[in-house]
Amino acid sequence: MSSLPTVATVIGSGTMGPGIAATLARAGSTVRLYDISEDAIARAEAAYGVVQGVLEAVDSPSAPGGSVTFGTDLDAALAGTELIIEAVPEKLELKQKVFADLEARVGDDVIIATNTSGIPISTMAKSLTVPGRLIGMHWSNPPHLIPMIEIIPGEATDPTLVDKLAEIVKAFNYVPVIEKEIPGFVENRVLYAILRECMALLEEGIVTPEGLDAAVKWGIGYKLSVVGPTRLLDMAGLDIYQAVSSYLNKDLDNSTDTPQFIKDKIAAGELGFKSGAGMYEYGEGDVDAKRKEIITGLIAARKTLSTIPNV
Ligand SMILES: NC(=O)c1ccc[n+]([C@@H]2O[C@H](COP(=O)([O-])OP(=O)(O)OC[C@H]3O[C@@H](n4cnc5c(N)ncnc54)[C@H](O)[C@@H]3O)[C@@H](O)[C@H]2O)c1
Ligand SMILES: Cc1ncc(CO)c(C(=O)O)c1O
């Protein structure tokens, strides 16, 4: 019998919510996607066909009966739900307010999973009437394409929820990674360690953005997509790691704040795709073209990687 919830609710229909809802629905759940904003719901409904096309392209597990309904009526979104996935903006007070609204409407047995990128689960749980039902479920963007989910119990999380959520994740063929609570969790700690060094190399003029992207994509990105970092050390030799890390580690960037050149770009309104300029400049139509290239590339890479054994 599948561990998937028969009915699930996703709260927040921005960047993450629609892909999360579509993934669960394709696997067979009845999913209700809720947002306070009518516009956000309209955008999600309009984009749903594209998301379904992506799931089809990567052969995401499908079962009959699944569906997504879109709406701004919270009671309707919660009727009969077994699992709520919260994906509202990364603000502690907002999430706590949402949890209070949810708890007032559902039974004590309903699981609340939060897609927070790093707010401690234990901190959020303090405001709950049933703190044991809150658990971290960190999807990666785009959620309908990246088949890995971090599961993070807080201090008060009911321990049985960890395995239960891991079984749900496996039911839609994603890889659950169970972690301990730590700022940024595992994925973002590793990503931000890489980004810190990358930004320092750019700021010091050691390499161009194009050169950096090529070096990371073909040097380490390609390799790490097949071999994880621990296996990579076995492949390289621990003695080599010791020899290099003994002089290199102390030279690596260890700044604790965001680089000044990034702050300057933000002050100038250069935020990336959403504002037409960021690390690169984008002309008319460039952003849409780049988004398409990225999705096409991720689909192709996921299909290829799924045929390769875990080494
Ligand atoms: N964007 C990413 O790459 C990414 C990746 C992993 C995790 N996350 C995390 O997922 C969460 C959501 O991120 P996002 O990027 O989708 O945010 P977003 O800002 O794109 O979307 C959030 C949505 O929540 C809605 N919302 C606001 N208040 C609400 C409320 N009270 N009830 C219901 N809906 C409400 C907004 O209208 C908006 O549509 C955050 O915690 C974020 O840190 C984001
Ligand atoms: C730079 C960056 N920061 C945070 C997140 C989400 O937690 C992501 C992502 O891609 O998921 C990211 O790229």
Describe the structure.
This protein is an alpha/beta fold and 311 residues long. The chain contains twelve helices and eight strands. It has helices at residues 17-27, 38-57, 74-78, 92-103, 121-125, 160-171, 185-203, 209-224, 229-236, 238-248, 260-267, 286-305; strands at 7-11, 30-34, 67-71, 83-86, 111-114, 134-138, 148-153, 175-178. An eight-stranded mixed sheet has the order 3-2-1-4-5-6-7-8, sandwiched between helices. Strand 5, helix 5 and strand 6 form a beta-alpha-beta unit. Helix 1 packs across helix 2 (38-57). 26% of the residues are buried. The site of ligand LJNTSFBV has 4 residues, from loops.
Q: Secondary structure elements and their pairing?
A:
Elements: E1 7-11, H1 17-27, E2 30-34, H2 38-57, E3 67-71, H3 74-78, E4 83-86, H4 92-103, E5 111-114, H5 121-125, E6 134-138, E7 148-153, H6 160-171, E8 175-178, H7 185-203, H8 209-224, H9 229-236, H10 238-248, H11 260-267, H12 286-305
Parallel strand pairs: 1-2, 1-4, 2-3, 4-5, 5-6, 7-8
Antiparallel strand pairs: 6-7
Helix pairs in contact: 1-2
